[in-house]
Hints:
Elements (H helix, E strand, L loop, with lengths): L2 H37 L2 H14 L3 H34 L5 H19 L2 H16 L5 H27 L2 H9 L4 H31 L11 H12 L3 H35 L1
Amino acid sequence: MNRKESKQKSFFRAHWMDILVILVVAVLLCLLAYNIYDRFNFAKKWEIFYRYFVINDGYQILLTGIKNTALIAVLGLLIGIVIGTLIAVVKVIPPYKKITRYAQTVCNVYVAFFRGTPIVVQLLLGYYILLPLLGLTMPEVTSCIMIFGLNSGAYISEIMRGGINSVDPGQLEAARAVGLPFSTSLMKVVVPQAVKNILPTLGNEFIALIKETAIVGYVGAVDITKAFQDQGSNSYEYMIPYLVMALLYIVIVAAISALVKLMERSLAKSERRK
């Protein structure tokens, strides 16, 4: 008997109980899956879903929903980064002047409102109350982009403020020592380093925006969730559409999470080289 066979036998002797438990659990899961499949008549439900989704071109609504979800999340994040950066800069400026103190108060109220109310409440208030009061009319997707951007700006402002505070104070002092004004030193020296520190956290914020877009159907915008809701309404069958919807969200979030992890590893490697 060679060494490889000896190792295999010793492994099975040591872990035979674990292997048996895994096999039993796998068999039970298979039986449970078959029971659910048979009880809920998945074959017929899948046939209905396939007929409405593929044959009746229901997938085109989903493609529109995916496009709108991506637009709202990406553009909302970009707007949030701009707003959040400006608010963070205002908050870290020493409040020596009255205008600075007033600006910080306004920023605090802004952040308190958008962090203290649910995003669905902000969406309904913005679309059904604020826009009519201002006499403005916007497409549903555009309205969602603006509101999601404002909401994201409140959260990113705190993320950015933490990133700015994580930068070595000596960086700002060195910039001031060579004659740069405070605002220039902050925007040209400190903020770029802060952005690098918070990139992984911004990835998590993007994931949150992707999931939060599920509420835009409240104002008539078509996203991934709305597309599958319409699919269920048209076919009078919700089980398969909602299961596929959940799986699609999991795949999207998993892909973004993988990219965020790659970004974190890349940043870690660049830091080690220094």
